[in-house]
Amino acid sequence: MTRVIPADAAGIAEAARLLRAGGLVALPTETVYGLACDATDPRAVASLYAAKGRPRFNPLIAHVPDLAAAGQVGLLTPAADTLARHFWPGPLTLVVPALEEATCALARAGLASIALRVPAHPVAQAVLAAAGRPIAAPSANRSGHVSPTTAAHVYADLDGRIDLILDAGPCSVGVESTILDCTGESPVMLRPGGLPREAIEAALGSPLADRAAEAAAHDDAPLAPGMLASHYAPSVPVRLDAQEVLPGEAVLTFAGARPAGSERAAVVRDLSPAGDLVEAAANLFAFLRDLDRVGARGIAVVPLPGHGLGEAIADRLRRAAAPRHS
Ligand code: TXA
Ligand code: MG
Fold this sequence. Notes:
The chain has 10 helices and 15 strands. The protein is of the alpha/beta class. α1 crosses α5.
């Protein structure tokens, strides 16, 4: 049995106690709910991989409360330091050379680098401060499933497999953090996410190189082992850039668009009737879960804008639509 408790002071203290004892705790961040454990404890990390059904070649993000704590876990390169000062706390993960004694090798899947993130959510911040050690936290879903943006999503995937879920309501950003590889001379984007490319490029004063597309094309590309082409997969087929709706399909739309045949759709959900990509990102995973459950033959998705958070939304939808390996 997995307990679900409110993320008040008592809940935060209980979460920190369980983490220090090697337990598995789902907690809110501003992006998605994370499944947290002590990143220095190989037994805890092994049980986390098992609970998610996650392949052990896929490294975890280490979460820390601030820049100073990050500097004890990884070597902040000049580019990483600049970006951290601009955007932490927030939806940005930086891959840097690991300080190998600070986390267990299993959390890094044996890599010499480590992914670091300082989340902005006050509950995540409070738990990190109380736990007093780096916390590994992948998204709190079964491997390959859509990431959770509510405590109920976590419960549906992981009940009976983890100790505790801290419930702080829905996540405000709704897609995972943007990941930048900062081990080289200039940063490279590994995963588009909750911090838009435009903001990063403005801070850097130069365009950002991109390896996300490459990583998605090569399933097992070691540079970002978790970027499997098929991911975030609903159980029914997802069809992108739909101009018309096939009988029995559910529709995921945006800004009031109604593709031909919408009247015969099983159900129509609009990610943001006002055409706001921030609102669309926050709704994306919950709407995919909802549409997956209505008994439709598939989900038709209208074309969406690609700027701002549209890049992360497009990335997640492409993975949801990719051929399944299972
Ligand atoms: O918003 C987020 O980032 C959420 C919240 C909970 O913080 N976490 C999250 O974790 O999305 P996860 O495990 O679902 O995705 C982490 C990604 C994976 O694709 C993994 O392969 C990649 O980060 N990653 C981790 N360490 C890496 C490393 N050293 N080099 C390259 N990629 C790495
Ligand atoms: Mg994930």
